[in-house]
Amino acid sequence: MQWIGFPDERFVVNGLGWWDETKPVLRRLPERMQSVVPPAVWDLAQSPSAGRIRFATDATELAIHVRYPSLRFMTNMPRVGQLGIDLWVDGKYWRPVYPLDETSDYTGTFFEGLPAERREVCMYLGLYAPVEVVAIGMNEGASIEPPAPFALEKPIVYYGTSITQGGCASRAGMAYQAEVGRALNLDYINLGFSGNGKGEKELAEACAEIDACCYVMDFCQNNRTAAELQEVYAPFLQTIRHRRPDTPIFCITTIFSTAEVWNPASEHEKMREVIRRVVEDRVAAGDSKISLVEGYDLLGPDDRLGLVDATHPNDIGFMGMARSLTPVLRDVLGL
Known about the structure:
single chain, alpha/beta, Rossmann fold, Jelly Rolls, 6-stranded antiparallel sheet, 30% helix
């Protein structure tokens, strides 16, 4: 097996909006933003959620060598989704590789002994763990070609919470953005920050910096109250709209949480109303490129088996969210 050091221009990196600035570091925000975003957001940005390594090859064997700066295992999410490298080939799920112990320097083999035929390879990086890709291994003489193009040149940009970041998918390729991306053949960038998707202006500016085919706003639960959400939601949208006047924006009200059943203090419905009113006001003011997406249409009270805990979707939940969101985006984007 030959080992090719990473990064290498033959391996295309998608899903990291500032890769040209951050490489070789697989990080979701550029270093220049460290001083302006909240420290917790900067820490979470070290996890390359939505990061993918793509290429086409006729390799008969394929492996990856990675290093994890730190290994902190979560309680409501398997390590496969948290830090595993999830392999999809020709748009189909094949397998993940991931350390079985606390070994931070890890080499995983995806396959060996296969026929030499062209395959489209997509490696989804872990959702909740910083990682350094050291090298990609394949048999001597294997070809490496560019991957197939996306349907649109520009990516979808998602902003939101832990749900947006990918909690709690069993594998990185099962986060709802990954599923939408495969269904529509679109690139996507994930700016979801667990517990910290609070709608700060600096994050709106970061979103708007990326020239997207559309923006998906998937935040509210990290704001403690509906009043707190109301303070930031309209200004967040205005910051994006000021820089991107013609780009579609989709605003998702929060999906169902069982906290709405057992917690009398839940403000989920009040937060939904805040989002609805802001979207209504923008439409009334002439914004024809903004759309409301009801979270209950993605994951509602009848879909509660799609939750890991009270709040976070499992694979069932994410599949339902993706299946409902996909036609909405397809229609607006003309796909």
